[in-house]
Amino acid sequence: MAQHLNCLYETPSQTAGPFVHIGLMPTYAGNPNCYQQEIGVSPISGEAKGEFIEIAGCVYDGTGWALRDALIESWQPDASGKFPGQEGADPAVSGLCRFATDAVTGEFLLRTIKPGPVPSRFSKPFAPHISLWIVARGINIGLQTRIYFEDEDNSQDPLLARIEQRPRVDTLIAKKIEDGKYRFDIRLQGEGETVFLDI
Amino acid sequence: MSDPGPLVPRNRAVHPPAFHADYKTSITRSPNLPLLSLESGPSEETGPVFGHDKIGALDNNLILNWSKGLAPAIGERILMHGRVLDENNRPVRGTLVEIWQANAGGRYRHKKDTYLAPLDPNFGGCGRTLTDDDGRYQFLTIRPGAYPWPNHGNDWRPMHIHVSLYGHSFGQRLITQMYFEGDPLIERCAIAASVRDHSHLDRLVAPLDMASARPHDFLAYKFDIVLRGRRQTMFENRPEGM
């Protein structure tokens, strides 16, 4: 026998299910005016500093079919790499966005500003990235991943450096389509499977 | 300001695996390859903060919030309450708790729910609140109905309420479901069974709490929730060259 640790176990996750939108995106679910102020409608307000960008993509299952019922949350710092609440952070950046894959086309669209690099406890900072958290029917625990950018220097990033199979790094890098527009497809399973994180 | 420390790595043994064959949709939506594990950084250790200014007075009262207080929803009136704690057994204060659920007949107010049970004109099915200084939260709602779902030939979801939390950081993000003590459908549910260890599934089942029930008004169910904690040690050695 030994002393008892005064620690608790985390509550188990359960799938968010197909109707997650009524809870987290009521207007999208067809229930506008549910709340006076909905949460995560945009990660920025009009005056945010930095480069305005759009990131579009799909979330594909193992058969190559784009999910029509996924909900994604993004979390990011401002253009200088500061998160909301940190000293000197841009007050026009709230950082959180909730968006859905379209019920007809499966496409999602995130409108935001490009984040700055973020300090780390490793010897090098993280390259600019946006954190994602993906839930849907059939996803038993929210999937974490990150969007990095093709036109940034990702060579020193401590997370990307940990990926053993180097071609898989590309699954975390948004492709530049034109100025301010990026493509980031997420593959849940199979060929080209996105690197998901336990972080 | 001192570094509050990285998040405790997630103990995946308490959670359902991504692939759970009895829950058919998970078969094509589960990653095959291992997750990439890394110590948390600012992206996981920071998170959105929600103030009381965003929360309306009726937001945690699902019996009245859809009708804006004009008419109560149909169903068995219940209080759902509990505490939000972290793995270090500390209360998580001022954190957002969001819930959503089916109505008393088992129907969601969602454009894609086509179950034949009718909508209740006075029930929306979502609510939210912030925890107090002890990590406590409460919702007044109605007991959701069980409902059929397409999985095996005759599968029914037990009565449940979906719960969504952030804690104080994006890395603590969690969505789960609260079940009700004594519901025989829990043992027949493929989604509940995705939690491998029954002792952990038991922690999703809220007991009837007569001490919090209000006579001639509502029954009560208590549901405590635990989020990831932070590691605090004096010795933080940094790996080189990473």
Rounded mean pLDDT of chain A is: 97
- Rg of chain B, alpha carbons: 20 Å
The percentage of residues in β strands of chain B lies in 15-25%
Helix share, percent of chain B: under 10%
Largest inter-chain interface?
A-B, 83 and 89 residues
Order of helices and strands of chain B: HEHEEEEEEEEHEEE
Oligomer: heterodimer
Description of the structure:
The complex is a heterodimer of chains A (199) and B (242). Chain A has 199 residues and is mainly beta. Chain A has 1 helix and 10 strands, in the order H-E-E-E-E-E-E-E-E-E-E. Chain A has one helix at residues 20-24, and strands at residues 52-60, 71-75, 96-100, 107-113, 130-135, 143-149, 173-178, 181-183, 186-187, 197-198. In chain A, strands 1, 2, 3, 4, 5, 6, 7, 8 and 9 form a 9-stranded mixed beta sheet that branches. In chain A, a hairpin with a 7-residue loop joins strand 5 (130-135) and strand 6. The relative contact order of chain A is 0.19. Chain B has 242 residues and is mostly beta strands. Helices cover 6% and strands 24% of the residues of chain B. Chain B has 3 helices and 12 strands, in the order αβαββββββββαβββ. In chain B, the strands form 3 sheets. In chain B, strands 4-3-8-9-10 form a 5-stranded mixed beta sheet, with no helix packed on it. In chain B, strands 2, 5, 11 and 12 form a 4-stranded mixed beta sheet that branches. In chain B, a hairpin with an 8-residue loop joins strand 8 and strand 9 (174-180). Chain B starts with 24 loop residues before the first helix and ends in a 15-residue tail after the last strand. Chains A and B meet through helix 1, strand 5 and strand 10 of A and helix 1, strand 1, helix 2, strand 3 and strand 9 of B.
Summarize the structure.
The complex is a heterodimer of chains A (199) and B (242). Chain A has 199 residues and is mainly beta.
Any chance you could write out the topology, listing elements then pairs?
The complex is a heterodimer of chains A (199) and B (242).
Chain A: H1 20-24, E1 52-60, E2 71-75, E3 96-100, E4 107-113, E5 130-135, E6 143-149, E7 173-178, E8 181-183, E9 186-187, E10 197-198
Parallel strand pairs in A: 1-8, 1-9, 6-7
Antiparallel strand pairs in A: 1-4, 2-3, 2-5, 5-6, 7-8
Chain B: H1 25-29, E1 36-37, H2 42-45, E2 77-86, E3 96-100, E4 126-130, E5 136-142, E6 147-149, E7 155-157, E8 160-165, E9 174-180, H3 198-202, E10 205-206, E11 219-222, E12 225-227
Parallel strand pairs in B: 2-11, 2-12, 9-10
Antiparallel strand pairs in B: 2-5, 3-4, 3-8, 6-7, 8-9
